[in-house]
Amino acid sequence: MSSKTAIFGLFFTGFAAGSVAFANFAAAQTAPQPIPIPTQTSQPQGAVIQMLYVKEDREKELPLSLLDQPNPDDGIAGAKLGIADDNTTGRFLNQTFKLDVIEGSDIDDLIKQATDKVAAGNAFIVADMAPDSLLKFADGMKGKPAQIFNVGNPDDRLREEDCRANVLHTAPTRTMLADALVQYLVWKRWPNMLMVIGPSANDQLLADAYRRSAKKFGAKIVEERKFNVDTGNRRADGGFEQIQQQISQFMQGAKDHDVVLVVDEDQVFGDYFPYRTWVPRPIVGSAGLVPGSWHPALEQWGATQFQNRFKRLTGRIMRPLDYDAWIATRVVGEAASRTRSTDFKTLKDFIHSPKFDVAAFKGVAVSFRGWNGQLREPLLVSTQKIFVSVSPQPGFLHQFSLLDTLGIDKPETKCKAYTQ
Prior knowledge:
The chain is 31% helix and 18% strand. It is α/β, with parallel strands linked by helices. Helix 2 runs parallel beside helix 9, helix 3 (107-119) packs parallel to helix 4 and helix 5 (174-187) crosses helix 6.
């Protein structure tokens, strides 16, 4: 267990404060005055804050369920809602927010296009890219007036040994996600886990995160099993019968355990495990009970109204990538409203300062860690249909912020690009 974390005490959350209160206050200050409106004068031109969404097109395995088909605007839709929210507040300060989008599979071309956009004033960039592409993109933007927000990748190394000073991260890391789930399992007194690991490189990284979390919070991985994925017949007639037999046989003879921890980041086999194990045990991790930054069924802390606005804008439910992109754009809007500035350096310095935080529909304001640029935030533990709990869990304490019980803490960081 980390020296920063103890299993006692209570976790207290408040209600998130949205921009509505500020908007009502501003509206109250603009009551009509008994002065004639001049006929030959015009309203001063408002300042425009231009943001850019850069999406790297990547080939991904098709999801197991037809209900989980990817949307072409995943992430982009969340950024658009954030821009709309920024403009709701910005109009009282004569600020306008706009979003440009560029997509492609050639990272060099994306860097070239983004460089041209930055030269034209797009100082804040929301980036959805593979890890190596993000590093190359960040290096390509080095020295330019640009702040990048990583919304698409959970790699811890992007915040640690490979961190970049011009990148902030609104996507949670694997260690944060693992900590959120393991905290809940420990709180439930289900500490003994049988871990089933997929074959991909991402699965190995996620398995490392769960091993770290188990050690950190006093849980135990009683056994690890490698699962070899064969997805060739999953759409064929009779495929489910083979899967039903395969999973059951694979799980025979396991050591006694409380839960089956499925590690399948690429979502190619995890959903097969519920109700197919040899002994009846809950499925957690990449299927069953899953940690994440967002869930479309969340209703607490004003989330219902937030979910409804997204659905009116897009005609669909909000996914975690949409939420991470929404947060990125709201960070810029919040900084602009509180500094009453549109100057890039002023906004960037404030976002990086300890004074910055932003409402997030999660009960508490969220902010960035000064040692690696990662957004500290509560994480949700949910099933496919409902929100179950929020981590940090009751009983997990930290000397500075309860949210820093999730993920890499300051004494553990390997990032050299940040100085706080």
